[in-house]
Every structure is written in C-alpha cells, then in structure tokens.
Design brief:
Keywords: NAD, Nucleotide-binding, Oxidoreductase. With 452 residues, this protein is α/β, with parallel strands linked by helices.
C-alpha cells in the first residue's frame, strides 16, 4: 500500500467522527501523491504525513457567560494549534452553532497550506465556539467574548498564536476579545488581527479576503487570455468576504447578480448594489429580505433543501463566499451546463470533493480557497508586520502588497502544477498546485527542525 493510502486509512480510523477534517485531508494528501512518491523513503522515515495531519495541540474549554435575563449560558470553545513550522500559529475564530472540533480541525489543517502560500512567515491554526452571535445584544456578545478570551489568553501571544476573525467574528468581537486580553496580560501587543484602525489594525484588512479573491481570479483569467470586463458573476454569502468580493468584482467591470445568507438568496439582474448590501448587513445586521424590500429589481428567494440557489443562473464566474460544502455535484452540473468559465473559492472548502472533480474535468478553471482566499490571512500577516514596526501603512500600500501576493500565489500554484505535470480537463490542476506549493515550504522547515 502506498504511504499516502496508509496514512489516509489511519486518519479514517482515528478521526471517524470528523467528516470535514477527513474531506480536507483526503483532498490534500491525494493531490500530494507525486511529491510523496518522489520522496517516499525520507518522508516515511520522518513520518512527515503523520506529523502534518496531527495538530500540535487541541485546546477545548468551557465558556460560561450571563445572558440579558441573568441566565448563565455555557458554550464550548476551541483552539487547534496545528503546525508552527514556518511561523506563529495564525487563523481565525469562528462563532457559529455548527462549530465542533472536526470543523475547527479541517479549518486549521487548510490554514497550514494557505498560510504557507502567502509567502509570509505564519503557521496554521484555527479556533472558535458553538456560540451563535445572531440576535444577541452587544452586552451579551461582550460577555461571551470576555469569557472566551479569559481562557484563550493562556495559549496565545504575538509570537505564539495570533487569532483573527472568521464567520461570526468581526470587528466588534475582535475589539471585546482584545480588551480582555490586554486586561488579563497587562500588555498591549498584536495578539489578534482585524483590530480597529485606531488601535493597531491595518487598513485594507476588512477588504482583503474579497479583494484578494478577485485579484487572483483576474490573474487566472488574464493568464488564459481572457478579461473579466463585461462578465457576469454569481456570489454566495453576504458577509465580509462576499461584500468585498462583490465590490472589487464591480470595480473590475463584472456584474454580480446574486448574494445569499443562511435563509435565502437575492437575484438582482441589474447587479447587486454594494452600498445597500453593506447598509443591510454591516450596519443593520439584518436579513436579505431588507435588501429586496429596498431595491425593486431584486428578488428574494427563501432557501429550500435541494435547490440550486445562487448556482442556477447563467454566469461566467462563480464565487462561493459563504461556508463549507455549499456547492455540491448537482450545482456543479448546473454551472457547467450554463457555461461557467471559472469557480474561485472565497470561503473555506465551499465545494464538495465530487463537485470539484466534476468542474475540473469539465474544463472549468477552478482555484480552491487555500489559494484564492489567502488574501485575508496575508493581510493579517501584514498587520502583524506593522504592529512589530509600530507603524501604519497607507491603504494603497497594503492593497498593492495584497495584489502582488495574490499574483505571486497564482504564479506559484500554476508553476507547481506544471512541475509535476498535474493537469485536469485541459488546464493546470490548481488544487494540486496549491497543495504542493504550500506543502513544500512547510515540509522543508519540518525536516530542518528535526523531530518535533
Ligand atoms: N473573513 C476572512 O477574512 C476570511 C474568511 N474566510 C472564509 O470565508 C467564508 C465566509 O466568511 P466571512 O465572510 O468572514 O463570514 P461572515 O460571518 O461575515 O459571513 C458569512 C456568510 O455566510 C453565510 N453562512 C454562514 N453559515 C452558513 C450556512 N451554514 N449556510 C448558508 N450560509 C451560511 C452567512 O449568512 P448568515 O448571515 O445568515 O449567517 C453570511 O452571509 C467562511 O468560509 C470563512 O472561513 C476565508 C478566508 C478569510
Ligand atoms: O486573518 C486571519 O488570521 C484569519 C483568516 C482565516 O481565518 C482564513 O484564512 O480562513
């Protein structure tokens, strides 16, 4: 049995209750086969695959807090510190009722390779809680964040582990957590990214994941002799990543006709009005029905299981920006039959393994989240640099570094695919290219640092 198959088999036995982690590990290890085969003896002896798939540590803790009725509530908190071979652990905190250890582990595992692709010195980690911020008062959010950070503060630090936002964790939550860390540790340091601009945050971090997604998509299209100008896109989600992906797409001449949230979606043939979307989602924290009520060209549809949602429309590019496994095989077939040119992932693992394979085999230009959404964490690393320097760079400076990083990521993933002759559906296999390019750097560091 090959080394990859042996490790995958062990992983399935050890992590049977963690389907998302197994899905992520299978995708990565499968695509690394040519690299592993070429170095099998060394990697087996050094147990590289066993080590890279086992987190350095998994921290789980109780988060008690008091709600507005005086009732004590208890949530579960997580931080998975996966791999720090190339830098301090780095990755967001997800606050969503669906959060469990398997989801945090899959996200932390992906983060190792993504962070390596950014070209910056950051290791992989992820955390969060099954706390649901929806419908909570600001005081309840603060009570939760303070309690969460009271425990988490024991395990993080500017050179140890630097968390950030993710689903459900935005500027408000980062603020409450930073305040509590400062109070407990008696120290002002860049322990979190996504901070407010007056207390160590970086300009362009808010925009970075969505803008970065479009910079990479633009590089992909240009490399294939195509232009985004005048094209139409479907976007899912209506949170941080989706909003700034829509904004940058429009700046590049793309008409975005959809967005969604967990209860339904908008189809707006005139193009999404991003200012209105920001007002509804960022300011009012309201549902998308409010967007439809304010814009006559927009239709709102309630989500029902088995429907294609935003993926049913005839578009040139699809940008999944909501959550994992939101684009399945049937959606992929629909997109292909409608002639989609590219699918580039703003979210983490939004496309199922079957859908990814179908899109790639049918000639769709497909770039997975590890490469396509790396602009967020890359800009977080730029925030860390600014904090270390005790300086703030201009928006233009950060944005131009972000653009350069995304173009380099695209060049590196296509180069890695070419070096190993990884092609699919007539294109470079960018999924394999991303996994290989991310892996090579981490494995070099692991080998250099000995058994640890
Ligand atoms: N923020 C960042 O910098 C980065 C984020 N990502 C990834 O991008 C994705 C989106 O994150 P972000 O925009 O920050 O998060 P937000 O919380 O700002 O937005 C999440 C969006 O996805 C929707 N959503 C969440 N869960 C579900 C679900 N189970 N089914 C359908 N829709 C859902 C939300 O709808 P609703 O409002 O109804 O919950 C919301 O529209 C995630 O996969 C995240 O891991 C990746 C790289 C960096
Ligand atoms: O900016 C960060 O550190 C976190 C980004 C993140 O969670 C992600 O890339 O999925």
């Amino acid at each position: 049995m090959s080394y990859v198959d042996e490790v995958l088999e062990q992983l399935k036995k050890k992590n049977a209750s963690e389907p998302e982690f197994l899905q992520a590990a299978t995708e990565v290890l499968d695509s690394l086969r040519p690299v592993i085969d070429a170095n099998e003896q060394l990697y087996r002896k050094e147990a590289i695959l066993e080590r890279i798939t086992e987190p350095d540590r998994q921290i789980m803790f109780r988060v008690p807090w008091v709600d507005d009725n005086g009732q004590v509530q208890v949530n579960r908190g997580f931080r998975v510190q996966f791999n720090n071979a190339i830098g301090p652990y780095k990755g967001g905190l997800r606050l969503h009722p669906s959060v469990n250890l398997g989801i945090i582990k899959f996200l932390g595992f992906e983060q190792i390779f993504k962070n390596s692709l950014t070209t910056l010195p950051i290791g992989g980690g992820k955390g969060g809680s099954d706390f649901d911020p929806k419908g909570k008062s600001d005081r309840e959010i603060m009570a939760f964040c303070q309690s969460f950070m009271t425990e988490l503060s024991k395990y993080i630090g500017a050179d140890v582990d630097v968390p950030a936002g993710d689903i459900g964790t935005g500027a408000r939550e980062i603020g409450f957590m930073f305040g509590q860390y400062k109070r407990i540790q008696g120290m002002f340091e860049g322990v979190l990214t996504g901070k407010g601009l007056t207390w160590g945050g970086s300009l362009a971090r808010t925009q970075a994941t969505g803008y970065g997604l479009l910079y990479l998509t633009d590089a992909l299209w240009r490399d294939h002799g195509k232009s985004l100008e005048g094209k139409t896109a479907a976007v899912s989600g209506s949170g941080n990543v989706a909003i700034y992906a829509i904004e940058k797409a429009q700046q590049l001449g793309v008409k975005v006709v959809t967005c969604s949230d967990s209860t339904g979606w908008i189809y707006d043939p005139e193009g999404i009005d991003v200012a209105l979307l920001k007002e509804v989602k960022e300011v009012k924290r309201a549902r998308l029905t409010e967007y439809a009520a304010a814009k006559s060209s927009a239709q709102y549809f309630e989500k029902k299981n088995g429907e294609h949602g935003v993926w049913q429309y005839k578009v040139d590019l699809a940008l999944p920006c909501a959550t994992q496994n939101e684009l399945d095989l049937e959606d992929a077939k629909m997109l292909v039959s409608n002639g989609v040119t590219s699918v580039t992932e703003g979210a983490n693992m939004p496309t199922t393994l079957e859908a990814t394979k179908y899109l790639q085999e049918n000639g769709v230009l497909f770039v997975g989240g590890k490469a396509a959404n790396a602009g967020g964490v890359a800009t977080s690393a730029l925030e860390m640099s600014q904090n270390s320097e005790r300086l703030s760079w201009t928006f233009e400076e950060v944005d131009s570094k972000l653009k350069g990083i995304m173009e380099t990521i695209y060049a590196n993933i296509s180069d890695a695919a070419k070096r190993y002759n990884m092609t699919v559906g007539g294109n470079d296999d960018y999924v394999a290219g991303a996994n290989i390019a991310g892996f090579e750097k981490v494995v070099d560091a692991m080998l250099a640092q000995g058994v640890c």
